[in-house]
Structures are given as C-alpha cells and as structure tokens.
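Appendix C: a fully annotated inverse folding record. The material below is reproduced so that readers can follow the format used throughout the book. The structure is listed first as tokens, followed by the designed sequence.
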C-alpha cells in the first residue's frame, strides 16, 4: 500500500496518522473477510429440506451405469439406514471419498446399512470410472435430476460431494456438504 503524497507546503503525515490509517484499513479488511466467510458458510451449509423432499427421494428411480444392471429404485432401500452420496467423476473430493464409502458399506451392510451413490455426471464417464474403481454399493445415474433432488434436500449451492443420511423410518437424519471423514462415518454408524 502506498502513502498519499502530501500537497506542497502541507505537513507530512505523522507516524500516528499512518498507524491509524493502517489500523482502519486492517479493521475494514477483517470485517470484509468475516462477511465473506459468513456468506460462504451460509451458502455451503445444508439448508432445510423442502417439505416434499423425503417423499420425492423415495419415489426416485435411477438408471444403472452399465447396460443390463438393475435400475436403482430408492423405495427398495426404505426401512433400513441409508447413506446417499451425490458425486461426480470430475470432483476430486468425491473420487477420494468413494473408496472410504465402499469400506463403510462392506463393514456395515450385515447390520442393515445401505449406501447408494448418485452420479451427477455423464453415463460414459461414470462407466469408465467404475471400471477403474469398482464399488460394491449401487450407483445410479442421476444427472440433472440428481442436482434438483440435492437442492430439494438442502444443497442449495449444488456443490459436490453432498451426503444425506436417512433413518429406518425414511426421514432425514443428517446431511453434509463437502467431503466426509472417517469420523463422520463412525458417528453415523452409531445412529443406524
């Protein structure tokens, strides 16, 4: 930052004036940063789900990525704990968390847990990805339908990954915007 040049004949600013100016600029920058962080938190946190979102989720049907595989009928998972993960092949945190989700599914499916991945992506990209990284849990091709569904479930920003945990009664128990952690999975496993 540069100091203004005083007009000819005007006294030069004293160090106290410079210090006050710097403090004022620093305070303004801190307020702007806090406002920006608050806005980002508000935009990226899950918002309330629409009243009809749960019913809409259970009525969904998604095509499977590979020909011949059964479609993903969400109603089939009702009555047991369900973790739904919205993801895409072009989303690095999504790709990073999928093996962890697969491990969670393998470890907890005997206790009734189900995991479903809803790919917000092109079918060809999902097929190629699943050839390299096979998953044990069902994956549905959600596309734009999945984006709209995610928004109705509280993901107003449309960011990925977005994870929704449903209880055995079909209601939303928890939602998380952003990459999940092993601690998230540990806590959620205790809920099911």
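Designed amino acids, in order:
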């Amino acid at each position: 930052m540069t100091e203004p040049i005083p007009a000819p004949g005007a006294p030069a600013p004293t160090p106290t004036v410079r210090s006050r100016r710097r403090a004022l600029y620093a305070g303004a920058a801190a307020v702007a940063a806090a406002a920006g962080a608050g806005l980002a938190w508000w935009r990226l946190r899950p918002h309330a789900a629409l009243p009809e979102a749960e019913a809409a989720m259970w009525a969904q049907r998604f095509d499977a990525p590979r020909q011949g595989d059964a479609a993903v009928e969400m109603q089939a998972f009702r009555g047991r704990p369900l973790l739904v993960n919205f993801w895409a092949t072009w989303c690095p945190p999504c790709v990073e968390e999928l093996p962890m989700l697969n491990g969670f599914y393998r470890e907890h499916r005997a206790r009734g847990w189900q995991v479903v991945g809803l790919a917000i992506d092109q079918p060809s990209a999902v097929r190629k990805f699943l050839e390299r990284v096979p998953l044990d849990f069902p994956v549905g091709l959600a596309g734009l339908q999945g984006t709209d569904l995610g928004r109705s479930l509280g993901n107003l920003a449309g960011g990925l990954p977005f994870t929704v945990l449903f209880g055995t009664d079909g209601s939303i128990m928890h939602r998380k915007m952003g990459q999940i952690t092993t601690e998230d999975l540990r806590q959620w496993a205790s809920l099911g």
